[in-house]
Amino acid sequence: MHxxxxxxxxxxxxxGVLIRSEGANLAYYNHLFERFxxxxxxxxxxxxxxxLHTLSTPQVLDRFVPERIRGQVRAYADGLxxxxxxxxxxxxxxxxxxxxRRAGFERAVxxxxxxxxxxxxxxxxxxxxxVDDVVTVRDVARPKPHPDLLxxxxxxxxxxxxxAVYVGDSDLDARAARAAGLRFIGFRRGVPPSADTPxxxxxxxxxxxxxPALGKLARGRKDNRFPTKEAPMSQKDMFHTPDNTLxxxxxxxxxDVDLCPCGSKQAFAKCHGAPCECGSGKPKFKCCHTDDF
Length: 293
Known about the structure:
It is built from eleven helices and eight strands. The protein folds into three domains: 7-17 and 90-219, 3-Layer(aba) Sandwich (Rossmann fold); 22-88; 230-293, no CATH class. It is globular, with a radius of gyration of 19 Å. The protein is α/β, with parallel strands linked by helices. The chain has helices at 22-35, 46-54, 57-64, 67-78, 95-101, 118-124, 148-156, 171-180, 198-210, 212-219, 284-288, and strands at residues 7-12, 19-20, 90-91, 105-111, 133-135, 164-168, 183-187, 194-195. The model is unreliable at 220-262, 267-273 and 284-293 (pLDDT under 50). The termini are far apart. The longest helix has 14 residues, at 22-35.
C-alpha cells in the first residue's frame, strides 16, 4: 500500500472536467454577440455549443464574429468580467476529495484555454486552493490543440512530459496531449483510457503508473491506437444520434490547423462525411477528428 507509485504531475483541463460551465459560457458569448448585433447561439445548436465550450475566446471570435468588428468585440471582451456569469456554473462533484487526497499524483496543475477568468471560476467552486498552478491561454503563444499550454504546465512544475498525465474532455485536449507527449485520460469521452468520475481518474493514474503498456496506449501513438467498444458506424450515422445529438465529440478543425494531424501533410478536413484528403479512405471525422488514426 505504501509503495504505490504516483504520477509526478496531473494536468487538468478546466471546463468539462473540473467545472460544468456550458450554461455560463453560452450566456457569456451570447452577451457579446447581442452587444454587437450578432445572432445568438441557441441551446440546441450542438455544433456551436461544442465550440464555445472548448475554444479560447480569440478562437471563438474568429469563428463567430465578422472580421470588420472583431477588434471591437475583442476589446469589449477583454474588459468584461466573467463574475456575472459565475452563478451559472457548478463544480464537477468529486474533485475536491481527489485533489485533497492526492493518492495517485504528487502535483496538480490546471491548463486551460480560458484566459483571465480561469482563476475566478476555480475560486468560485472552491478548487483554486487545491491545485498547485493554473496555466491559461494568456500565458502561452498558442491555445490548444497546440502543445504550448501543456508544455508550460509541466515545465513550470519542473517535470518531464513523459511523467505527466493530462485529463481532458475534448478532441482538442487529446490532440494537445499527443503533441506535447503527455499521457492522456479522457473525461467522459468513451474512448479508452477514459474515466467518468474524478475517483476513476485517480484509479486510472495508479494503473498507468503500474502498467507500461497502458502508459503507451494513453499517449495515443499511431502504433498504440485507442480501442473502442462501439460498433462500426456508417457515414450516415457517424455524426448524430436519431435525436440529432452529436456523437463522439465531433468538432470542426481549429482555425490554426491547416494540416491533418494524421501525418499525411494534406489539408485538414473542415467538413463531415466525405473521405479525408489524406488518402486513408476513412471519413474525415474518423481520420481527422478522433484519436483512431
